[in-house]
Amino acid sequence: MRSKLFQIGVILLIPAFTEAAVFQVPFGQNKTVSEAVSAAEASASPGPPPSGNANSKLVVTTAQGSSGKIQTVSAVYFQTNALDADNEVVACRITKDGSITEYKKFKTGGKGGQTANIQRNTVAPADDGGFGSAPTTDSLFSQHSLIVYEDYLFTVNAGSNTVSMFTIDPKDPLKLTQVGKPVTSHGDLPVSLAYSQKLRTLCVGNAGKKSGVACYNIDKRSGLGCQDKEPLQRTSNITKGDNGAGTISDLFFTTDDKNLIVVTKGNKAQNQTSTVDVYATTNGKGKTSKVSYTSVCSQIQNSPALYGTIQVSDTEFFGTDGTYGLAKLQFDPNSRKVTLPDSGTEQIDFQSQTSWIAKSDKTDSVYVSDLMLNRIVEFSAQDGNQTTQQSFLSGQAGNVDLIVGGDFLYTLSPSNKQLASNTSMIQIMYLKQQGVLVDIGSYVFDQADNITSQAHGMAVYDKRHSRNQNHDSSDDNSSDDNNGGYKLF
Hints:
The chain is an all-beta fold. 2% of the residues lie in helices and 44% in strands. The chain has two domains: 2-30 and 62-465, 7 Propeller (Methylamine Dehydrogenase, Chain H), CATH 2.130.10.10; 31-61, no CATH class. It has one helix at 33-44, and strands spanning 2-3, 6-8, 11-13, 16-17, 22-24, 59-61, 67-69, 75-79, 86-94, 100-111, 146-149, 152-157, 162-169, 172-178, 183-184, 190-196, 201-206, 212-219, 223-226, 248-253, 259-264, 274-281, 291-300, 306-313, 316-321, 325-331, 338-339, 345-347, 354-360, 365-370, 373-380, 386-391, 401-405, 408-413, 425-433, 436-444, 456-461. Residues 466-489 are annotated as: Disordered.
């Protein structure tokens, strides 16, 4: 391992680069990643198949029927979130075939943490419902604990109740610069973040004893500044319990930036259902709060454990529920009410704890992952019907987050002491088309890399969405399709 010091302003960042981690193709596969993707394309293309040469230009057909090069992003990020230790952002470089080649770590200035009262199961069920492997850990019971928008990266520090902000260098996405110092989350256990580009506003959800949502103005020079006169006025009345029950699951702004959505899990032991709070926003000036303190609160019947949630249309949200699978929520922009119709639930066979969700513009699909099953399940973003499912071949127990970057899907599968390998990895699938997912391999960390079971959050960086218009855009890693990238809705 070798490290290099960077002096940036008054903040000393120490990115550590290591060659211990390696990329591995799936068990039994004798192709390179490029060859595997080429073979996948050949099996779907009606015309002549592409060459097996790893250096050939790959051709795909998008959901809209247009043809273009394989679409990739520049980097994928997550946080180590080591319990009561220095939290770090892990930045991983993505190559033009979608695989990962190297990574660097950056200290956030805060500590990692975890939800109180975690009850661990001893084994996870197998895909067929039989005996399975040891489960993965979900330390925060949330989605979007780390997010990327434009050239900004934001992450929570759950153990120190703070939020950190970084800028990303478009010329080298493995170069992060911290902006200002970590700021208080104004509560306990920050677990989820949402950012509005239009409002230039970041909001953080706290899930501890002192819970609720605080919002901040962002400044590219000084960092984060709280815009609330009375922070944490946005709260829930659900009783907190074991395994994140009654705590915030997710935050996001609607695509028109007119609302902040706060998703809170229910508490079955207290017979309390999940809720969705919708807070109106205003395009206020200066440092005044742009997010209302009062919400339209909807109780989501038949959803005791609403989790990761995304917007798929002006009037629809899709969310995961750990008790059955997918919840197809209806949203009324006028009344700001959210409902779950009787026909709005999609059962996933043998699911154990479906939690995270991501959307692909290319396939017009959403993908969900399970904490205790090492597979991805795909649903159409149009009607919410299940289209396929695909297991990884790595032998990991499950995944704690996932993100779509270009034509690829990345999942975070932290180490597990109950497994012989006890390794953390980022698993990768190529999204060939709706209904077809191809496991292309995993970027495997070893114990020397110190990526613990606490690792959490995922986001990707696409330099095509950079605010810096002067960087070199000729890199083959990007395409001309502006629909790809790091959208989190």
